[in-house]
Amino acid sequence: MTETSTAERHSQRRDEPHDGARSGVDAAGSERTASAIHMQGLHKRFGASTVALDGVDLTIEAGEFFTLLGPSGCGKTTLLRILAGLEDADQGRLTIGERDVTEVAPHHRSVNTVFQSYALFPHLSVRDNLAFGLKMRGVDRAEREARVERIAEFIQLGDLIDRRIDQLSGGQRQRIALARALVCEPDVLLLDEPLSALDAGLRSQLQVELLRVQKRLGMTFVFVTHDQDEAMVMSDRIAVLNGGTIQQVGPPREVYERPVNAFVARFMGHANLYPISARQGQRVTTELGELELEPDLDTPQQGGGELLLIRPETLDVRLGRHQGVNHLAGRITERLYRGSHAEFRLAVGDTTLQATINNRGRRLPEVGDEVTLVVAPEDLVTVAN
Amino acid sequence: MTDTAVLGRSQGMVREARHLLFTVTPGAAWIIVFLVLPSAYLMGVAFMTNGPYGLPQMPLSLDSFKQLAGFGFLGWSPGNLYTLLRSLWQTLVATGLVVIVAYPIAYYITTCRAKWRPIMLLLVVVPSWTNQVIRTFGWMNLLAPGTPLSSVAESLGLIAPNMGLYPSNFAVTLGLVYNFLPFMVLPLYAAFEKLDTAQVEAAQDLYATPVKAFWHAVFPQTLPGLLAGIVLVAIPAFGMYVIPELLGGGKALMLGNLVANQFSGGSNWPLGAAGAILMLLATFAGLYAMRRIGKRLGGGEEVVI
């Protein structure tokens, strides 16, 4: 691997922006570029038996807010660590921007990480933590100080700059960790569940803040989380991982509304899933009865999936008995009132089903009510098992 | 306020006082009898005059401190000063070498599998369960003239023929390093075991080369253990008596030997007491310095010793 100095690479990128690079504006207002990431056949195993990654092919576009989503042990953190260079892939290639970095040490990659535990240096002040990356890169003192001041202003923590780390709250530490990585102006910023240690209120506030930072800088963000709500709020695109393989890649709506398989459907939210016992044209038969689909939604790959997916919020719950296409007769067996909405469990024939209704101040059905469930054909999707 | 309430409170105070008396007295008595009184006696002796058979006598004087500084009947001689400097130098060299040897050992043990670690630590500690004098005699046998080690050193031209590695300053240093190794390995091991590897990864991620990542992310985390180890090694080493006496062959005296000789040979108790006080002062100075260093490198945080 040949080494180009940071300065050289920066000037090179400014002079001749190449494909896969998108420009944005950094905290200083100067032009900068983001880098695309290409992963090809990445394999990683730990010990003899634990397979962390089992052939990952993935392209992350320049300037994208990309999320790696999955349950614990799915390989998302391993993948992030391979991007950072903290872990080496057993097989496969990794390119960031134009550069093959498969075997490049972490300190030679223009990639920075926000760690789950923040990993701030407790023996250094906030200022020295922020300046660390610049110092290691050999940025001279005057510029270093200017950039540290600027980034501290940018994340609105300028008044904390001379504090010690143990004098900061969790939310402040999180922001310092973010700023410590951003100040280096990396091509790619990696975030390893950076908000998981924070309480719900602060968490949603920082989600918005993070998203704004990313849009403003136009930097490529790769975000790891196990929280599908967080993933949907933040991401341009999501890759859902399970068992070391990518299940589906797509924008949040696509992954939630058109999941390719039962795992993705269940992981992204509440899912009513029923095996399809027979199909005739656009009509499928399940234990709920006969239902009609939209032809272009009979995924995956138009061959039709083995399972029918009904999201709880796509069901229209009407009191009384009604007739029509995709009308199902049911009875409420359970109600969970949640203020803004209510969740219902219903008995339809011999099977059960979940439905969610927004609370618009009208009468909410009670347990025991006879209701009719209506679902539009365009809201029905078939998924693979 | 009613009388019973006052009575109840005073009863409570009595109980508390009794409780304090029972718990604190034994320790306090021990410290007074075996530390405070002897120290006060030593202090007094140091300011007395040397009498026949080396026993202290009145009047009070500063003679012993003058002698310690080298002023004798025949004018100034540098003998005691050399001893003091040799003590400092030996302590410095031995402590430095102990750090160099112990640091990798402690790190290595933490990289071993969890079930092997207690055994490795045991192997480090076990030798110190044997009497120090016996272990030191062991080194005398290993380093004496004509032994394989000495022969090798001789053939390499490191020592003069038939001199042997013992007795020498080298033997004293070796003995000190060997003797104090466990006291450095244990606190360092404790520091390494709770090392936050995320900090090391963060340093690498922020463009630190492996050497810089060690210096900025590993070393500061092991600093409390290191300082604790230095205190545990340097202070006893400074006052060490057995090892210089045996391995130095009575030539490479340290402060501990100087003090011991003044008392045991019946030569000069006040001078010995003055030496002991000097040792005590040096120890306090060293502890204070360690605290300051710990505070500065620890980012203002207290390094507990």
From TrEMBL, chain A:
Species of origin: Halomonas litopenaei
Its EC number(s): 7.6.2.11
Record PANTHER family: SPERMIDINE/PUTRESCINE IMPORT ATP-BINDING PROTEIN POTA, SPERMIDINE_PUTRESCINE IMPORT ATP-BINDING PROTEIN POTA
Ranges of residues in domain ABC transporter: 37-268
Compositional bias segments (type: Basic and acidic residues): 1-21
Reaction catalysed by this enzyme: ATP + H2O + polyamine-[polyamine-binding protein]Side 1 = ADP + phosphate + polyamineSide 2 + [polyamine-binding protein]Side 1
Cited Pfam families: ABC_tran, TOBE_2
GO molecular function: ATP binding
Primary role: Part of the ABC transporter complex PotABCD involved in spermidine/putrescine import. Responsible for energy coupling to the transport system.
Family: Belongs to the ABC transporter superfamily. Spermidine/putrescine importer (TC 3.A.1.11.1) family.
Keyword ATP-binding: yes
UniProt-recorded name of the protein: Spermidine/putrescine import ATP-binding protein PotA
Sorted UniProt keywords: ATP-binding, Cell membrane, Membrane, Nucleotide-binding, Translocase, Transport
Subunit structure as annotated in this protein's UniProt entry: The complex is composed of two ATP-binding proteins (PotA), two transmembrane proteins (PotB and PotC) and a solute-binding protein (PotD).
Superkingdom of the source species: Bacteria
Disordered: annotated span: 1-30
Matching SMART domains: AAA (SM00382)
Enzyme class: translocase
Automatic annotation (TrEMBL), chain B:
Alphabetized UniProt keyword annotations: Cell membrane, Membrane, Transmembrane, Transmembrane helix, Transport
Transmembrane annotation, as ranges: 20-48, 88-109, 121-140, 170-192, 213-243, 269-289
GO biological process: transmembrane transport
Domain of life of the native organism: Bacteria
Main location: membrane
UniProt subcellular location: Cell membrane
Membrane topology type: Multi-pass membrane protein
ABC transmembrane type-1 domain segment(s): 84-290
GO cellular component term of the entry, any: plasma membrane
Keyword Cell membrane belongs to the record: yes
Family of the protein in this entry: Belongs to the binding-protein-dependent transport system permease family. CysTW subfamily.
The protein's name: ABC transporter permease
Organism the protein comes from: Halomonas sp. H10-59
